[in-house]
Amino acid sequence: MDFTLPESAQAVRRGIADICSRYDMDYWQRCEAEKRWPEEVWAELAKGGWLGLAVPEEYGGAGQGLLELAVATETLSASGSAGGSAFMYVLTPGFGALTLARHGSAEQKAALLPKLATGEVETCFALTEPDAGSNSLAISTFARRDGDDFVVNGQKIWITGVQRASWMLLVTRTIPAAEARPRSDGLTVFLVNVPEAVAAGQLSYRPIPKMGANTTPSNMVFIDDLRLPASSVVGEVDRGVAVLWDVLNPERILLAASALGGAEVALRVGVDYAKQREVFGRPIGANQAVAFPLAQVKAKIELARLMLYKAAWSFDNHLPCGTEANIAKLTASQAAWEAADAAFQTHGGMAYSLEYPVARLLADARIGRIAPVTEELLLNYLATQVLGLPRSF
């Protein structure tokens, strides 16, 4: 059993780290405070070809996979961006390139993959709804056949990156949830040209004020008589669950990678302060009450990393990865929260000052325990699907 990362992933780590070395913690603090996309970093990622990692070579990409995307996300996050980096790899390389490379039609691949590889085109993903919440099979946004087209109506919530997206992957019902047998039938995924839909008055959005991750707005989305051609379907009509799992598992893996990087940067901030800050004549890190929580975090980071890489490797090798993705997401998010909390406690009162990055790291870490799926649902999956315990519903 070889635990060495392949050279392709190691090269990604070196390349992303080189870019990140030019952007310090203050840069990421400013991006968050100003609520602006990290344009400078995005431009360097695009110029260096780091956005096309998962795009097949015949479409101008690197022909790599989710493992390389996860390493890129982890490295970017650990540089100081923490949660602010997640969307840079989830939205376009993950939701867009990875999904279309597996499930797109020949026409969709030819039209979009080359532009996704360069960052010229960006994507977002719309699944969650106000009433359905975490029950994704209960969504009610409906696509009705009308001749050769579909007409879509509904609402979505917490849809991140609509403002920048050229295309949206939109998950709809084409069979109502109450009529679908099994319940996972009747889902259909569409590609939506966002600027065209907005200009036609068929799609609109409203940003949601939020406590963190403000480099990318999240939105309520309203869909009114949105007309889409049949050629915009990704995968098969009524069989979109196959596409959906190949979106949700990579999303969990990439967000686990972001959380893992966030845990690393929070641990580094906490350790540095524990070494430098002196009280009662010695560095506070000499006290076991300060040192042991930081040491516990280090152990949990390394354990989460093993499952993260296994989950990504399994996906790339077309092996079942749901259990691994859920465990990676659960453990990495918990490590990120414990790391940020330990850094906060280590800084004492100064952690509350926005002159330090700890408050931002804490806010970013908290997101991971509820989004894109709650910790409780991850545990419920492990309890019922892995351990075989009785379902509660």
Automatic annotation (TrEMBL):
UniProt KW Methyltransferase keyword: no
Residue ranges annotated for the Acyl-CoA oxidase/dehydrogenase middle domain, each copy included: 124-225
Domain Acyl-CoA dehydrogenase/oxidase N-terminal: 7-120
Pfam families associated with the record: Acyl-CoA_dh_1 (PF00441), Acyl-CoA_dh_M (PF02770), Acyl-CoA_dh_N (PF02771)
Transmembrane residue ranges: none
InterPro entries: Acyl-CoA_Oxase/DH_mid-dom, Acyl-CoA_Oxase/DH_mid-dom_sf, AcylCo_DH-like_C, AcylCo_DH/oxidase_C, AcylCoA_DH/ox_N, AcylCoA_DH/ox_N_sf, AcylCoA_DH/oxidase_NM_dom_sf
Domain named Acyl-CoA dehydrogenase/oxidase C-terminal: residues: 238-386
Gene3D superfamilies: Acyl-CoA dehydrogenase/oxidase, N-terminal domain, Butyryl-CoA Dehydrogenase, subunit A, domain 2, Butyryl-CoA Dehydrogenase, subunit A, domain 3
Keyword terms: FAD, Flavoprotein, Oxidoreductase
Cofactor(s), by name: FAD
Family: Belongs to the acyl-CoA dehydrogenase family.
Protein name: Acyl-CoA/acyl-ACP dehydrogenase
